[in-house]
Amino acid sequence: MKNVFTPANVLFLLDGLKTSLLISLCVVILSILFGTLLGLVRNYENKFFGKLASFYIELFRNTPLLLWMLGCAFLIPGSTILVKGSLALFLYTAAVVAEIVRGGLNAIPKGQFEAAHSQGFSFFQSLMYIILPQTFKKIIPSLLSQVITTIKDTSFLAGLGIMEFTRSGQVILGKVTKTSEVFLIYGFLALVYFIICFLLSVLVRNWHNRNSENV
């Protein structure tokens, strides 16, 4: 125990955890913005851009995340490996968010547009002030679930050598010699991921239960 969780190793692991959480935060925020745009275009634009959005979403949702991370790492010139790996995670997550948003949009009665139009709202105003607020209220549990998935997906970045939480644990693994210490490190990584994701899962369930009571 003392050989594994030295002050230096603990700080090293915490730094990796901070990197994982910062990447997750940036990816989630950008994915919600871009994913919402993709969902709107796929749902309401039936010509070129709608088909392009559909192709993008289906391409990323039906191919492995690690494949895109490796592709961005080796095929995109310039920039750092951290940026390239995070870019791949963002592009992948945005496709998932787009489908979540589209599902929420389809759950809104079409009569909402007609009611908004009768009050003088344009299509864009109807989306911004009436449709999207209702949509996000419905999909918040699904979005929070995707946040959990994104946090876990940052562990794939370890395959690119990015010093996130899992990779930090792997580096420390190279310094130990006992099998018990290996299990201790992996157990610690699993425990931290579990605590973070479990707390977010509780938040999702509480939100869902609160909404169910208000219906």
Automatic annotation (TrEMBL):
Protein keywords: Cell membrane, Membrane, Transmembrane, Transmembrane helix, Transport
Gene source species: Carnobacterium inhibens
Entry similarity comment: Belongs to the binding-protein-dependent transport system permease family.
Domain (ABC transmembrane type-1) ranges: 17-204
Chief site of localization: membrane
Regions that span the bilayer: 20-44, 65-83, 183-204
Membrane topology reported for the UniProt record: Multi-pass membrane protein
Protein name (record): ABC transporter permease subunit
CDD domains: TM_PBP2 (cd06261)
Compartments in which it is found: Cell membrane
